[in-house]
Design a protein that fits this description.
Layout lengths: L24 H7 L13 H14 L2 H6 L16 E13 L6 E12 L5 E13 L2 E8 L6
Antiparallel strand pairs: 1-2, 2-3, 3-4
Helix pairs in contact: 1-2
């Protein structure tokens, strides 16, 4: 799905919260414009991370840029149409609550290439900061593989 063809509100949310898209990440995607004006914003670092994953899944580059901290935000974002995001596993969270200023979310995002049919995953430990009542993605590290 692309930002011009959003996921229907009654579809299962790609972040796998168990909620429907319109009541979950869809409300954040609709509530935040590229200029940063909020109607509704993710209340926690984990909620923002889930909504960013869902934005990758539906192809909403504007939301991804709007929720990226200005100090690390790229000028533009070209999403890979060949990539299908299949599953999100939240591994751990640290801080990132409604009253915190920073938070960390570790996750594994599983994908599949439509062209090659190859499967893979992205394991990342993401840093978030809350400014002006809004959470922003700052950056992420790929943890070292064990063993």
């Amino acid at each position: 799905m692309t930002a011009t063809s959003p996921l229907p509100d009654d579809a299962r949310c790609p972040c796998l919260s168990g909620e429907i898209y319109g009541a979950c990440c869809g409300r954040y995607h609709r509530g935040l414009s590229a200029s940063g004006a909020d109607a509704v914003a993710a209340p926690t670092a984990e909620a923002l991370m889930r909504s960013r994953y869902a934005a990758f899944a539906v192809g909403d580059a504007d939301y991804l840029l709007a929720t990226w901290h200005p100090s690390t935000r790229p000028t533009d974002l070209d999403l890979d149409d060949d990539m299908t995001w299949r599953r999100l596993d939240v591994v751990a969270t640290s801080a990132g609550g409604p009253l915190d200023r920073t938070g960390v979310v570790e996750f594994v995002a599983h994908y599949r290439s439509a062209q090659t049919r190859e499967r893979g995953s992205l394991h990342e430990v993401s840093a978030f900061v809350r400014e002006g009542g809004r959470w922003y993605y700052v950056d992420g590290d790929v943890p070292a593989r064990r063993g």
